[in-house]
Write a structure and sequence with these properties.
Length: 193
Amino acid sequence: MILSNSEILKAISEGFVVVDPPPKIPSLDVPDSPFNTTALDLRLGQYISIPVEGSPHAFDLRKGNIADLLKRVYERREIDPKGGFNLDPGQFAIANTLETIHLPIKPNSPCYAARVEGRSSYARCGLMVHFTAPTIHAGWQGNITLELMNLGKNSICLFQGMYICQIIFEKVEGEIYFTPSQFQGQSTPEGLK
């Protein structure tokens, strides 16, 4: 079951979904509320990481410890607060959300998972956000890494704090055996703590 905006607010107020910093509550006085009817918009964080050209590494994903590998083959940059970052046509980068998300698993309480998706307005310009890995599992805590790709013919300007993606919450049914991700608690685009 996908949560409506009122159910997302209820889950946040009851502590079953934690968003930090907390989102602006929708009202007629808050024209830039991040709430849609069935999703919550999230903002782009402060840093973007770009693959280093000509890196001699081949990704062997069987070995795990992906965050340490990415730290060696990506260059992390602060997104210029005034000028932003131009994601050029065909360019790939990773970034993370400004918000941290926590989907706690509490005994005998409702539990939630989520999916992160791009926003239609940016997709129409060629921006892919968080492709192939949209699932945010129950028990997750940390920022969300966004895999960004410009499939368009023009550069796309990315700015710190812009609403770049949306998170859709779903109620989880059944008992959960917690299996933490290697990226649990991440705070960087590469997945480091």
